Known about the structure:
Elements lengths: L1 E4 L7 H8 L6 H22 L12 E6 L4 E6 L6 H9 L6 H8 L20 E9 L8 E5 L4 E6 L7 E8 L9 H11 L7 E9 L7 E3 L5 E3 L4 E7 L16 H11 L9 E7 L5 E7 L13 E5 L2 E4 L14 E5 L9 H6 L1 H24 L1 H21 L1 H7 L4 E3 L5 E3 H8 L10 E6 L6 H9 L4 E3 L5 H11 L3 E5 L5 H4 L12 H14 L5 E6 L8 E4 L2 H12 L14 E6 L3 H8 L3 H18 L5 H14 L1
Parallel strand pairs: 2-8, 14-16, 19-20, 19-21, 22-24
Antiparallel strand pairs: 1-6, 2-3, 3-7, 4-5, 4-7, 5-6, 8-11, 9-10, 12-13, 13-16, 14-15, 17-18, 23-24
Helix pairs in contact: 8-9, 8-10, 9-10, 15-18, 17-18
Amino acid sequence: xxxxxxxxxxxxxxxxxxxxxxxxxxxxxxxxxxxxxxxxxxxxxxxxxxxxxxxxxxxxxxxxxxxxxxxxxxxxxxxxxxxxxxxxxxxxxxxxxxxxxxxxxxxxxxxxxxxxxxxxxxxxxxxxxxxxxxxxxxxxxxxxxxxxxxxxxxxxxxxxxxxxxxxxxxxxxxxxxxxxxxxxxxxxxxxxxxxxxxxxxxxxxxxxxxxxxxxxxxxxxxxxxxxxxxxxxxxxxxxxxxxxxxxxxxxxxxxxxxxxxxxxxxxxxxxxxxxxxxxxxxxxxxxxxxxxxxxxxxxxxxxxxxxxxxxxxxxxxxxxxxxxxxxxxxxxxxxxxxxxxxxxxxxxxxxxxxxxxxxxxxxxxxxxxxxxxxxxxxxxxxxxxxxxxxxxxxxxxxxxxxxxxxxxxxxxxxxxxxxxxxxxxxxxxxxxxxxxxxxxxxxxxxxxxxxxxxxxxxxxxxxxxxxxxxxxxxxxxxxxxxxxxxxxxxxxxxxxxxxxxxxxxxxxxxxxxxxxxxxxxxxxxxxxxxxxxxxxxxxxxxxxxxxxxxxxxxxxxxxxxxxxxxxxxxxxxxxxxxxxxxxxxxxxxxxxxxxxxxxxxxxxxxxxxxxxxxxxxxxxxxxxxxxxxxxxxx
Length: 634
């Protein structure tokens, strides 16, 4: 039996490992399973090239919990290790010194796998670790290695082990006894090892015997009795070693992609809209499948839905900063051996390959959307409401994507018709170009709430878009920047004649003196801190009063509320409105002609309240007074 010290220049290597090598203690399980999978895959490779003679037999690995013995065991039938290999790979850790190591890697979230130290993660949760291993090499003897968490170890021959492979036995420490729970281990295996490339056994399960067909018997009274299924016990394989993204797209059909989506998100009961299969081997290796979920207007969807893998080994589901931000709204899997395993996110963000991968994925997504649009425009239009927020987000955050999106971004009007940007500009530019030669895009953010404004616009022959996403305020600003001859304005931004100013204007029936008489009357019946009274010359058929809100102020508030783009604190400012009085409406002339001050005020109040009511701005005590006043008038 050999005794010795692990080759490090400090007595405190294990506390250092515990303190600095992991952001999540539970990753030890991934590291040890990965080692076992790696050993198994190496054996398969050696067998394929003829370096291992004969049938290598079953190559699955197994994880076992023994709560009574307080052990957690990882077993594989891979290449195993000789005594010399145990000494080389386990004992000779390449540290120049613990202090230098800490200084160099303390900012890393996790560096174990990247530096080949995966095995030592076991001391995160174990007081003692044993290795029982037998090499695949002919004539090799089994060995046992043992360490109690200090730099001291023992290494000796092990007569008990007869089969090729390795067992890692963790004697779980008192402060980590949660890892003796089968439920906990099953949960971690599902999280970290769901798609590792070697079958992983965790216990057994009962299933119906496929070779037994239950018989149905009929008694003398004609009553049928069906025999129960015969049960058999089988290994419970908890992973899928050949997930869909590892296969060629030509070998998969739509049902395969749907099934894989359900496998990824078993608690998500809504199907995805469509998918993109990534498969590239130059200038980097990348595979994966991305799914488009139904987003509607929800930007607060759970973003941790893209899982990042390296050779089927789970890395993270927090990919913000690794893939473009707008792509984090997608679901699915990305797998690349060119993504470093087990390093911090800041390292990943700075890594050149990761940046290339990020750009590639963005391009592939844009290409796929353009392909879908060209292939079946009607089908694309039917999905537009579910994906538009994703495309808007991409256009706002990624210039290259925005350029490509010009080919498939759609406008939808209140009639439910869809147009590309070029198609829509052609449609409206004759009728909706104002005296300043700007094409005016009218839009509504809420068809029901802004119905009267939409109706007023349509009555004058104008078209109105539906732009109701939380990103609208940001998007219209970007579109205006892209084309300085266009302007976007919400239909309630002002009276329709002001929104689209033509050379010809309707003459007002009121003189300046009339307006001076009426203005204080209307200012008295509304909150002067919230409303600004102005007079507009509209037709007699238009409303006597209209409540509008300045496009610029409302847009700034919306942008500030969404974060960014607005002035500091703008989102907390009170709403400001205009009360636009139609100087040509008969009711306004009647209010002007009324000599009784009390009656004049009541008429003005009633007319103003009607305008407020139409925009759901009349509430509480003022609404109650309006109802009583209306009943009295009837």
